[in-house]
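Whether sequence alone determines local backbone shape is best considered at the level of individual chains. For completeness, the protein is quoted in full, as a sequence line and a line of structure tokens:
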Amino acid sequence: MNLLLKAILFITLCLGTDPSWPEVESIDQEPIIGDGAAARPNIVFILTDDQDLHMQSLDYMPFVRKHLINHGTFFRKHFCTTALCCPSRVTLWTGKAAHNTNVTNVNPPYGGYPKFVSQGLNDKYLPVWLQEAGYNTYYTGKLFNAHSVDNYDSPHAAGWTGSDFLLDPFTYWYMNSTYQRNHEPPVSYEGQHSVDVLTKKALGLLDEAHKANKPFFLGVAPVSPHANLWSPAFKHGNHSKLTEIKFEPPVPAKRHAHLFQGTKVPRTENFNPDKPSGASWIRKLPKQSQENVDYNDHFYLQRLRTLQSVDELVDRLVHRLADLGILKNTYIIYSTDNGYHIGHHRMQPAKQCSFEEDINIPLIIRGPGVPKRYTTDIVTTHTDLAPTLLKMVGAAPRNDFDGLAIPLTRHGLWHARKQRHEHVTVEHWGFASNEGQVFDWYPRLHMNNTYKAVRVISESYNLHYQVWCNNERELYDLTTDPGQMVNLLHPDEHAPTSEVLLGGVPRERLVQRLDALLFVLKSCKAETCIRPWEALHPAGNVESLREALSPRFDAFYERETGKIRFERCEMGYLLEAEGPQFEKGERIDPGWHEWT
């Protein structure tokens, strides 16, 4: 597809639905075989690895556009809550934020499959609940990090009717993957492209699911466009320390190896900027050299090329669903675990930060009753997906979910614009990695990358507030600063214009409210994660930041709410390092009603 045309289509998508567009001729006009439209719906969930939204990767996936965007709803304000593979996936499949799963990294002792098991989550996540609801469940590809040739059977991942998992230490080695089917021994696919292997397995599981004559869930998790990782130790099934692993650009299939020549990382204002930005280790980064920029452009190009295999996977899955006569009664969900940055704020290729590039990610849903060619800006997060999937299958919601089911009808989406929550809780622990080329001035790991952050988005404000474990703070107004280049709480950025924000709100008042909101969210559970303002204002007369900013609450926020403070930086979630914790009712003075 012509790149200019792709750009025009993407811009049109972002601006919203155009009723003048003609309906695209669709293969989903095939009749439903079996019980018809009244049958319980099937679900196919495609989960890529590290796919960006802000570097326009979707523009290079014509089949995703044809089959999903043109026939479904694009959620433009969808966020992961932890921008790192394993914690994000555990959140996605449990409906709980990482501070409630305590799976906060990719490897033990703070993360990975062993941590998932030790936290008692192997029988408390989505496939188990779907089976209890009468569904068959299937999965192929990457489940969690540290799910390996050593531990895949100790115990086996619960809840799957059929599975074919991609296993460590071969997960990110594109041309030397290892898969493990059901309870059988692992099998090596050396010399075959990992996504091509996955495509065959996904189609096989889809056929298997259809033959069982039961409603089904099928998860398909390709490794693309994650970086290629290998170590000499991997050849023999051994693991390596992170500092010994070689990170390289992702490896496309040979048929895609020469596409998009000359394509570069979009030159946004925050790409390798002349001035430093952010806080903590990010603000200390020097401007990248031309050699570095050229390498990062190549890295970006390889990501686009590896995504072509995923695009073909989408096409083949949709056609197989149509051939089986079940496409119209199947939800197809397309998302990723976290976003990605390349050169933004002078950073090397990676994720793990709270900038938009890392947390604002693709989410597209098509299926029965879902509006076609529709774009919405309601705020959704990965904590919302497990509740959404249970609602799809008619199962009762769980009372310990930290998220809220996403509306999937035009009527529900319209009401959500005014009634849905406006906040996103973001958190991270431990190191930040460099997945690109190693330069002397830019180490493989930045060890101090623990923080709590909140995004608050409405029609009248668009804010990001963050507290690092060294207690540095950041505040961005994305309405005026979409690239997050001006930290309004950094001494070098102070200016008369930053003293009054949002058309007249004193900056101090705004920070008080945001800090109190984040103070609740950083340790919230269940309903408090969804409606945090009610924890601060039990009378129920505050449901948004706009309402909380009323001057009549100034005394309350100045004197009676807790303030975020870390005791120290840690590599994982250790309560004694997290500082004061909000406990509903205990940190609000009994006289709170005087200000409410």
Remarks:
- The CA atoms of residues 234 and 440 lie 26 Å apart.
- The first strand starts at residue 42 and ends at 48.
- The chain has two domains: 44-276+305-419, 426-594.
